[in-house]
Amino acid sequence: MPYGCIASMKTRPGFRDEVVSLLLSGADGLRAAECDLYLVGRSDDDETTIWVTEVWRTREHHEASLELPEAKAAIGRAMPMLTGEFTKREMTVAGGLGL
Fold first, then answer.
1. 29 Cβ neighbours under 8 A, 6+ residues apart
2. Is residue 75 a contact partner of residue 36, using CB atoms and an 8 Å limit?
3. Where does 12-92 have alpha helices with state H?
4. Any bridge partners for residue 35, and if so which?
5. pLDDT above 90: residue 99
6. What is the C-alpha separation between 1 and 64, in angstroms, rounded?
7. Which parts of 53-98 fold into alpha helices (H)?
8. What DSSP designation does 80 have?
9. Cα 46 off chain centre by
10. How far is residue 96's CA from residue 80's CA, in Å, rounded to a whole number?
11. What is the pLDDT of residues 61-77, one digit of tens each?
């Protein structure tokens, strides 16, 4: 079954666009890692929140993607710009447009 997650993260003031760019910089390689959907969005409600929506072939593919060197490097670059406030919701994807 496809695995999905929706996460939000808060950046330090003034760093949201830089973190969005970092998150999007590795998007091209995600298809090869079995990612079917990867969306990065800016909150309309505040200047520091980023939303990330992902759908993967399996939970294991998602977990493996976090071990890729480019993912670890991007996470390392982004962490100093984040406040540490994260939320995450996981789901089993039933279907939909774009998959």
1. 68, 70
2. no
3. 16-25, 59-65, 69-78
4. 56
5. no
6. 16
7. 59-65, 69-78
8. G
9. 18
10. 35
11. 999 999 988 889 999 99
For residues 12 and 83, is the Cβ–Cβ distance under 8 A? yes
40-65: pLDDT as tens digits: 999 999 999 999 999 999 999 999 99
Query: Between 16-25 and 69-78, two packed helices, what is the crossing angle to 10 degrees?
Result: 180
Q: Residue 20 and residue 6: Cα distance in Å, rounded? A: 15
Q: How far apart are CA 91 and CA 99, in angstroms?
A: 15
Place of tokens 């800016």: 42
- The two three-digit tokens of residue 99, written as one number: 């998959």
CA angle 14, 16, 20 (to 5 degrees): 150
Contact 5/54 with Cβ under 8 angstroms?
yes
> In the structure encoding, which two tokens stand for residue 1, read together?
């079954």
Backbone phi, psi, residue 74, to 5° = -65, -40
Strand order in the sheet with 3-11: 35-42, 49-56, 3-11, 82-92
